[in-house]
């Protein structure tokens, strides 16, 4: 388990471990059920979709913890998911570096 000294980061350790475990389980399952997934098997597709959903939710929970405990600003409302990502790609001078890297492929075409 990753250990941190600062309380805000120490609380992230179990969340990081859960996301890591879920990713490992998803990788094992998807490698052994790859053909069923490609064939559109409902069970395999559902299981893999749930695994991806769980990993995303775990990562979002980590980002929300950082927003609350470090930034002291948690986005809300209808655009909170995108606002959270935008917040995490932004460095906060003297507080924290950018947590995520902005991917140029996510920008809308002009």
From TrEMBL:
Superkingdom is Bacteria
Where is each HepT-like domain found?
Answer: 47-105
Identify the Pfam families for this entry: HepT-like_2 (PF20797)
Q: What is this protein called?
A: HepT-like domain-containing protein
